[in-house]
Amino acid sequence: HVQLVESGGGSVQVGGSLRLSCVASGDTIGRYCMGWFRQVPGKGREAVAAADADRRTIYGDFVEGRFTIDRDNARSTVFLQMNSLNSDDSALYFCAGSWTLEKYWGQGTQVTVS
To answer: Tell me: the pLDDT tens digits for 52-93?
Structure first.
């Protein structure tokens, strides 16, 4: 069973940057597809970015080159570098990991842009 713990959220001004981290325990993440999702109250969870076991990446259309997902398998950590933040990026950001039928979620880290 994998546990995911996010960190790095906080309050930032429009145009600023944040770097989110997600540390996994209970298993190594090398074979997992790792991703970031976000959610605001009253709306569904939205996919932000993902990086598969071969480090291929995919991003939500709204990212428009502002975010970068990266993974350090040796440290079982996934990062999300977010630049040029705007108020629409304010949300609770979740880390997720999946492999075959297994899927795990973290508790989330809040990002507020104002």
So the answer is: 999 999 999 999 999 999 999 999 999 999 999 999 999 999
9, 18 Cβ separation under 8 angstroms: yes
Q: Is residue 89 classed as helix, strand or coil in its secondary structure?
A: helix
CA-closest candidate to residue 32, choices 105, 85, 94, 88: 105
pLDDT digit string, tens, across residues 3-37: 999 999 999 999 999 999 999 999 989 999 999 99
Cα–Cα nearest to 94, from 28, 45, 51:
45
**Nearest CA-CA partner of 101 in 33, 45, 46, 36:** 33
Burial class (CB in 10 A: 0-12, 13-18, 19+), 106: buried
Full DSSP string of 58-77: EE-GGGTT-EEEEEEGGGTE
Nearest alpha carbon to residue 94 among 58, 56, 44: 44
The β-bridge relationship of strands 33-39 and 46-51 is antiparallel
